[in-house]
Design a protein that fits this description.
Mean pLDDT: 94
Largest sheet: 9 strands, mixed
Low-confidence stretches: none
Bound molecules: zinc ion
Number of strands: 11
Order of helices and strands: HEHEHEHEHEEEEEEEH
Distance between the termini: 37 Å
CATH architecture: 3-Layer(aba) Sandwich
CATH class: Alpha Beta
Helix content: 25-40%
Number of helices: 6
Radius of gyration: 20 Å
CATH topology: Rossmann fold
Strand order of the largest sheet: 2-1-3-4-11-10-9-6-7
Length: about 260
Amino acid sequence: MKLKRLITFFLLVFFVNSVSAKFPRFKMLAFYSEEVESAHIDFAHQAIKFFKDLTIGDGFVFDVTKNMDDLNPEKLKDYSAIMMLNDFPHTEKQRQAFREYMENGGGWFGFHVAAYNDRTTNWPWFVDFLGGGVFWRNNWPPMPAKVVVEKHDHPVTKALPDVFISPINEWYQWKPSPRLHSGVEVLVSLSQDNYPLGLKDIIPDSDCPIVWSNTNYRMIYMNMGHGDKIFTDPTQNALIIAGLRWIVSIDKKGNVFED
Ligand code: ZN
């Protein structure tokens, strides 16, 4: 009887160890700011809840920070990917750390303002990273839009319908279109049926990719990220989850989902 109990104990220890060795599968670090416009903060708070809910069962670690100086090699070394919830590197040091992280195979999932750049940005590497486009114009007020899923053979979009209505968002258009960049794969774009899109500020026409990857890096940009309605659509939520999963799955250190 005693021996039986001992064996059970060791089996239990072995089981617990083998389970804890697998979980969490990976770590993500999300950057956000509370010093930006309120609709962008609303999104960041909802995104944090959305992604934290996905960690149930210790599947992965989702850390968050408001300190952009956490963008440094020491802090980033254990994270499979970082997320930018409406913020981006500001100082030279942060920019350098970000570039190094991405050029060494780091993952990036950027939303909305995370890709913002204009003539004052003075960071050519970042513009190229995002597909070569500079902010051109937006719609106002924020509105839902019909979006076209362009690829059905990509892991991020293969489960999605050809078109869906994406919830209320402020949409950005870039010039030139990121589609023209040789490394960019456009996954989702605004349907031409929306045009003219907006009342005060209008996107009248032209190509408008809203979800894409620069395949020279392990990254996805999503234009969604303005206001508190982004996570209200199951189709869009599925797209967001598939995006996160794909970025992590192609980590050169190995696919954690296949262990
Ligand atoms: Zn916005």
